[in-house]
UniProtKB/TrEMBL annotation:
Pfam families: B_lectin, Pkinase
Subcellular location: Membrane
InterPro entries noted in UniProt: Bulb-type_lectin_dom (IPR001480), Bulb-type_lectin_dom_sf (IPR036426), G-type_lectin_kinases/EP1-like (IPR051343), Kinase-like_dom_sf (IPR011009), Prot_kinase_dom (IPR000719), Protein_kinase_ATP_BS (IPR017441), SRK-like_kinase (IPR024171)
Protein name, per record: Receptor-like serine/threonine-protein kinase
Any GO molecular function: carbohydrate binding
UniProt EC number: 2.7.11.1
Domain (Bulb-type lectin) ranges: 28-147
Top-level class of the enzyme under EC nomenclature: transferase
Sequence ranges assigned to domain Protein kinase in this UniProt record: 511-764
Record organism: Quercus lobata (Valley oak)
Length: 764
């Protein structure tokens, strides 16, 4: 009997051995193994099947090469190789015969490859810990995903000095986001805001100085479910989070979330009456406990973006909200902040508009930090309102019972704080107040004048009194009851959505061409208000009296700009062609020119300059490649790049534009443009192409990178006078840091600086 049982056991062992061996071998992926996006259910699993490595489709945007929890329905991703660069269908990851591990797109272009300190990779393996490794024949790990985390930490994983978890951008967007958890090189733990989309950290918002946890060596997520901050001698400096359950019965992960909070999640491995089959949190796992009260930063909008405020919800998660009169810039991405839904207060002293605004009180709400520009002591709430109401730069006032702080735009670090007993007064334009004509104050003055005139003339004849009264009330009557004539499209230019104005209409719209915004060789530009109904601010370009060439310039500008439509071009709204009067009506750009912004004193931040460069490039590409009539601008310079409410670049001033016919790629003309931005071909009497704009853009790009003018006559070192020459020398000498000296954001992003300088040199 015993012999029979022994034989049976041996037979079972023989039958099971090949299966067991095959199953174990299948977990190690040999040289030549690969995965593609077309193989929907193909992945490399860990021996237990708890984790898998392969491609996961993210919406319709493409695929992540990722690691995920494989036994739960959510397939929760814990690591990815290409979070900022999704790959399309047809992409492939391969462990090549020579031991390279490469992710490539359908064309064979390399997208990602892990850095290897030495050669000798023999196989790849997905381990039961969630760690994906590339190993040598003697099982030494030459590379492992645990050393290169994205936003998640798993049990048995360690973070060493310099390591970080970077939050994703949004819940469904896995690219690098705005917050990170890091063990800094000095041995201190920190949660930091990031200068998105660059990698430069702005400021530590956890721990607070009074909660300093000391220096350590590693962050260890141990098998018992505790996340500990460890010193070099192995002692625990601080327990960051401790799970009430074991890793044997629960999947666990620590996640740096897109809202700026580090959270510890647990998920039961099997059904249990006491735990739901989903990712769960416990209150002590939130770091920080209330994000709204922690993020106060000089740079960036705070926890919730500019002009918004943060409130902790009942689920202990931060909620981003807009104050009354504001709405989200992007409802799908609330961290971008909020925008005003009304016209800002005029700074024209003749029409201060103080009576057109009121305040909305917000209790226990504050915008602390760097948007204060004036404060007063010994105030009441009512007296706090008065200085803000009469100040066009003041968008809100904060009153704490004694002090009154005036806040400028944009507001940052907004939050509801139960410990703050003060009130924020948000300044909002009254409903329909924009319908009031801008001549309201003039009407009051005229009425007073009429009363005075009538009283003086009482002794005169009734006839004369009537004449004077009619004469005095006539301007008021015209302003009150006059309405613009029906505006007709320009008859000789069909197909354009332009309006024709009379010279009289534009004279009244600009209050007699009162406020000059700028001037050039051909024209002056004035600020105005288009119509009384919606009070749309406009810029009116008044061309000088010209001979025949002036007419040609005018017609070129109207026909060219009237047919353009792009977010990075200033929109032409209408024109006037009445005898000797030739005027162009543009949308008003509230933030002025790039020249004023760039060289006005305070240095614009690196991210803003990058966005302005990209916007200008998009606008030029549209003019050169996407217009029905190709346009050469001929005068790209900071003075002709305007900035809208969001500081987006808008190319303006086509007064020097040169148009090309459909099949024409070059033209001849007299020298046009501005000294310092003019391409060499202008002086060679050869046909010019769109490359003249490319040259000018190269100079402009260098000015944006370096925040200095293309020529500095007062520079003592003649090698630094001409920006293009200096930039070229710095590039060839590998001293690009000199170009962005004292610009901390740019210095931390020298890779982008190098790219932009290289592009500028190519353009020149």
């Amino acid at each position: 009997m015993a012999l029979a049982l022994s034989n049976l056991f041996f037979l079972l062992l023989v039958l099971l051995l090949p299966y067991s061996t095959t199953a174990q071998i299948s977990r190690n992926q040999s040289l030549g193994s690969s995965l593609t996006t077309q193989e929907k259910d193909s992945y490399w699993a860990s021996p237990s099947g708890d984790f898998a490595f392969g491609f996961q489709q993210i919406g319709k945007g493409g695929y992540l090469l990722a690691i995920w929890f494989n036994k739960i329905p959510e397939k929760t991703i814990v690591w990815s190789a290409n979070r900022d660069n999704l790959v399309p269908t047809g992409s492939k990851v391969e462990l090549t015969k020579d031991g390279q591990f490469v992710l490539s797109d359908p064309t064979g272009k390399e997208i990602w490859k892990p850095p290897l300190d030495r050669l000798g990779v023999a196989y790849a393996a997905m381990l039961d810990t969630g760690n994906f490794v590339l190993a040598s024949q003697d099982t030494v790990h030459l590379w492992q995903s645990f050393d290169h985390p994205t936003d998640t930490m798993l049990p048995t994983q360690k973070m060493s000095l310099g390591s970080k978890l970077v939050a994703r951008y949004l819940e469904g967007n896995y690219s690098n986001g705005r917050f990170q958890f890091t063990l800094k090189s000095d041995g201190n733990l920190a949660l930091q805001t990031r200068a998105y989309p660059m990698e430069h950290p702005y400021v530590d918002y956890w721990p607070r100085p009074e909660e300093f946890v000391g220096s350590g060596f590693q962050v260890v997520f141990n098998k018992s479910g505790s996340i500990n901050f460890i010193a070099r001698n192995g002692s625990i400096v601080k327990t960051i989070s401790s799970s009430p359950v074991s890793t044997q019965d629960f999947y666990q992960r620590a996640l740096m979330e897109y809202d700026g909070v580090l959270r510890h999640y647990i998920y039961p491995k099997s059904s249990s009456a006491s735990w739901p089959m989903t990712w769960s949190l416990f209150p002590s796992s939130f770091i920080p406990s209330n994000l709204c009260n922690f993020v106060i930063t000089e740079h960036g909008g705070g926890a919730c973006g500019y002009n918004s405020y943060c409130r902790q919800g009942d689920d202990l998660r931060p909620k981003c909200l807009c104050p009354d009169g504001y709405s989200f810039i992007d409802p799908d991405d609330v961290l971008k902040g909020c925008k005003q839904n009304f016209l800002s207060q005029s700074c024209d002293e003749a029409f201060p508009e103080s009576d057109l605004f009121y305040f909305k009180s917000m209790l226990n709400t504050d915008w602390p930090g760097w948007t204060d520009y004036e404060y007063f002591s010994g105030q009441t709430e009512d007296s706090c309102r008065i200085p803000c109401l009469g100040d066009c730069f003041c968008v809100a006032a904060v009153y704490d019972g004694q002090y009154c702080w005036k806040k400028k735009f944009p507001l940052s670090n907004g939050r509801i704080d139960s410990n703050f007993k003060g009130t924020t007064l948000i300044k909002i334009r009254k409903e329909n107040s924009t319908l009031k004509p801008p001549t309201a104050l003039l009407k009051k003055k005229d009425n007073s004048t009429v009363i005075l005139i009538v009283s003086v003339l009482l002794s005169s004849s009734v006839f004369l009194n009537l004449l004077f009264i009619m004469a005095a009330f006539l301007p008021v009557f015209r302003f009150k009851y006059w309405k613009p004539k029906a505006l007709q499209p320009y008859p000789i230019m069909p197909g354009m959505n332009l309006r024709s104005y009379t010279y009289e209409e534009l004279t009244e719209a600009t209050y007699g061409f009162k406020e000059e915004l700028g001037k050039g060789a051909f024209a002056k530009v004035y600020k105005g208000v288009l119509g009384f109904e919606d009070r749309k601010l406009i810029a009116v370009k008044r061309l000088n009296n010209m001979v025949r060439e002036g007419d040609l310039e005018f017609n070129a500008e109207v026909s060219a700009i009237g047919r353009t439509n792009h977010r990075n071009l200033v929109q032409l709204l209408g024109f006037c062609n009445e005898g000797q009067h030739r005027l162009l009506v543009y949308e008003f750009m509230s933030n002025g020119s790039l020249a004023s912004f760039l060289f006005g004193g305070s240095r614009p931040n690196w991210y803003q300059r990058i966005q302005i460069a990209l916007g200008t490039a998009r606008g030029l590409f549209y003019l050169h490649e996407e217009c029905s009539t190709q346009i050469i601008d001929c005068d790209i310079k900071p003075q002709n790049i305007l900035l809208d409410d969001s500081f987006a670049a808008r190319i303006s001033d086509f007064g020097l534009a040169k148009l090309l016919k459909k099949d024409q790629t070059r033209t001849t003309t007299g020298i046009r443009g501005t000294k310092g931005y003019v391409a060499p071909e202008w002086f060679r009497k050869i046909p010019v192409t769109v490359k003249v704009d490319v040259y000018s853009f190269g100079i402009l790009l260098l000015e944006l990178v370096c925040v200095r003018k293309h020529f500095e006559a007062e520079e003592q070192d003649e090698n630094l006078m001409i920006l293009a020459d200096w930039a070229y020398d710095c590039y060839t000498d590998r001293k690009l840091d000199l170009l962005v000296e004292n610009d901390e954001e740019a210095i931390h992003d020298l890779k982008t600086v190098k790219k932009y300088v290289m592009i500028a040199i190519w353009c020149i």
